[in-house]
Prior knowledge:
There is one protein chain. The chain is of the alpha+beta class. The protein folds into two domains: 4-98 and 173-208; 100-165 and 222-252, no CATH class. It contains ten helices and four strands, in the order H-H-H-H-H-E-E-H-E-H-H-E-H-H. A four-stranded antiparallel β-sheet has the order 2-1-3-4. It binds zinc ion. The site of zinc ion has 3 residues, from helix 2.
Amino acid sequence: MSESVRGIIFSAYDRLEEAHWNIHQMEYNYHDSDAFRYSLNSFLRVIKEVPQILQMELQSRDGFTGWYKEQRKVINEVPLIKSLFKQRDIVVHQSILKPNSSATLGITEGRGIKLGLNLPLNPFQDSDFLMVNYLLTEANSDRDSDVLGILSDDEDQLPCIERYWRLAPFEEDILELTVQAWETIASLIRNTIIWLDEDPSQLRLSIDCIHTSSSVALLIYKREWIEVINAEINNGKDINELLYLMKVLRNTYQV
Ligand SMILES: [Zn+2]
């Protein structure tokens, strides 16, 4: 690979790579609220810096400033970019970004939910909260109300939570939104490289290694984890201790 283009726009491209990494962090932490939200906040900060840094790196070149101003105007009018950049300003200057979140608690045979209950899920809570809270409620109820079969011992049908993250006014999951935003900003870099009369294929400007939200949205719980949690409920552990234990189980033994 020629060093030329990467050298010319080194910092802007490095930021673009950082934003790519931020999306992987969101993907990896999809069910852990704080980690997911912090990764989203970082993504919003980093992706907005790319056009600014690109400008700083190239502004001394003849004709660049005028041409680039028009390019940025077009990018800034893309509704998703406009909205995300505004969200970033909220994060940086004012308060907490509060994405929307909802979830379905249910049973899966491996692909999607077979039977489930749609439940609101506070964006500041991990997906585990729904499951642990369900187990606590069941443990404290005398009636046999486990219609979903979360407590059964059927190994072909496992308890699960399917979670969704949204940012109004968009319909897609936040994971897809960030990939689209990344690609839009990458296209600004691509156009700039072409303007420089260089070959954009020298740099990686597409993203095809992020899992779709539909493939990470489903969190499956092993029956033995449910048993461990239920035993600890009987031992009198409180919800915070149970949540911690569930996270340890989940991170130690992936399904
Ligand atoms: Zn990747």
